[in-house]
Design brief:
Belongs to the acyl-CoA dehydrogenase family. This is Acyl-CoA dehydrogenase family protein. It comes from Nocardioides acrostichi. By secondary structure, this protein is α+β, with helices and mostly antiparallel strands. The protein folds into three domains: 11-126, Acyl-CoA dehydrogenase/oxidase, N-terminal domain (Butyryl-Coa Dehydrogenase, subunit A, domain 1, Orthogonal Bundle), CATH 1.10.540.10; 128-237, Butyryl-CoA Dehydrogenase, subunit A, domain 2; 241-388, Butyryl-CoA Dehydrogenase, subunit A, domain 3 (Up-down Bundle), CATH 1.20.140. The protein contains eleven helices and ten strands. Strands 1-4-5-8 form a four-stranded mixed β-sheet, covered by helices on one side. A hairpin with a 5-residue loop joins strand 4 (171-182) and strand 5 (188-196). The relative contact order is 0.11.
Length: 394
């Protein structure tokens, strides 16, 4: 029996990782704590990320993207490295590409792509994806937002919540899911419609006061008699639900990459602190109780990274949707739950100092919890994994 070749990123991916790490350390790390404290969305740095090409890693050259030099794995590398210093900018990148650019790239018409993608790919503008509602989160089929086609215009009425990149000064549009009719089986017909920022009746309500991700842009949205052209339909009418499911599969792997960055940051901080902090005349890293916990972080980051990049490799290789969906759910479940555990361990290693906002570990602790919620909760991932095994779980 021939041994399997260990999975490793390519030399090009590792070189790209180094360039993103250098940028993150120089442009983001020195300011992340202050942005977090001030709840400041750093537009200028987001646009610098665009100039570095981070928003164009999955886009063709004709729209200013990386073309053959980029892929989904590259996007995951970038998200991991940005998230290693600041989870807020990591999610800004993840949502900007996965929820803003990719749906237009995948389902948009030629005209829609030419109109919206160049500025989004350049990082000059951002786009959001409005799925979640006050009464429709994991149960997205319970969407209440409606869109009625009247005289070649969609009239949108409803509300969305927890929408990333939806109300910044550079937000250009939000794609929303809405009921556009009733299917033959009596279930709602759900479609995706692009609503440009500034459209009368579309309001990004005041930003949330969140537990974490303070430097990311997140708003509730309201739509009241909001008129947009009929050609703003994204993809096929009635296929919005299926489109968002496929979008979320990609997003789960990207959130997994963000989680890897979080775990790596916790490991780095814990190792450094355990080597410096002394109790009873010796570094605390000599104590098995501390050293063993840090060893667990090393296991978590390796396992999470392998699961994440295996799923990304399946995406880039064009693997069957069922195989990718299963790999995405496994990666997302394990890495996000590991990230939450990693922040708890790192905070414990720091002791009382870990409870102080002057130490980055406190920020990562606050930022981590939402990783288990966004792009499908841990419960949803377990349901998907079970279904992938053939179990009739509801």
């Amino acid at each position: 029996m021939t041994a399997a070749t260990p999975f490793e990123l390519s030399r090009e991916h590792e070189e790209f990782r180094r360039s993103v790490r250098e940028f993150a350390q120089g442009e983001i790390a020195p300011h992340a704590a202050q942005w977090d404290k001030d709840h400041h969305f750093p537009t200028d740095v987001v646009q610098k990320m665009g100039a570095l090409g981070l928003f164009g890693l999955t886009a063709p050259e004709e729209f200013g993207g990386a073309g053959d030099d980029g892929d989904f794995t590259s996007l995951c590398v970038a998200i991991e490295e940005v998230g290693r210093v600041d989870q807020s900018l990591g999610i800004t990148l993840q949502a900007g590409v996965g929820l803003g650019i990719n749906p237009i790239l995948t389902y948009g018409t030629r005209e829609q792509q030419q109109e919206w993608l160049p500025a989004l790919v350049a990082g000059d503008r951002l786009a959001g994806f409005g799925l979640t509602e006050p009464g429709a989160g994991s149960d997205a089929g319970a969407t209440r937002t409606k869109a009625e086609l009247v005289n070649d215009e969609w009239v949108v009425d409803g509300a969305k919540q927890f929408i990333t990149n939806s109300g910044s000064e550079i937000t250009s549009l939000v794609t929303v899911t809405a009921r556009t009719g009733t299917r033959d089986d009596g279930r709602p017909e759900i479609s995706a419609i692009m609503v440009p920022a500034g459209t009368p009746g579309f309001v990004a309500e005041p930003a949330y006061d969140k537990l974490g991700w303070h430097a990311s842009d997140t708003h509730p949205l309201s739509f009241t008699g909001c008129h947009v052209p009929a050609e703003n339909l994204l993809g096929e009418r009635g296929r919005g639900y299926a489109q968002f499911l496929a979008t979320l599969d990609d997003g789960r792997v990207a959130i997994s990459a963000l989680s890897v960055g979080c775990i790596q940051a916790c490991l780095d901080m814990a190792v450094a602190y355990a080597g410096e902090r002394e109790t009873f005349g010796a570094p605390i890293g000599r104590k098995q109780g501390v050293a063993f916990q840090i060893a667990d972080l090393e296991v978590m980051v390796h396992a999470s990274r392998l699961l994440t990049y295996r799923a990304a490799a399946l995406k880039d290789a064009g693997a069957p949707a069922s195989a990718f969906k299963q790999a995405a759910a496994v990666a997302k479940l394990y890495s996000t739950e590991s990230a939450v555990t990693a922040t708890r361990i790192a905070t414990q290693v720091f002791g009382g100092y870990g409870f102080m906002e002057e130490y980055p570990v406190a920020r990562f602790y606050r930022d981590a919890k939402v990783l288990e919620i966004g792009e499908g909760t841990s419960e949803v991932q377990r349901m998907l994994i079970a279904r992938g095994l053939g179990l009739p779980v509801e």
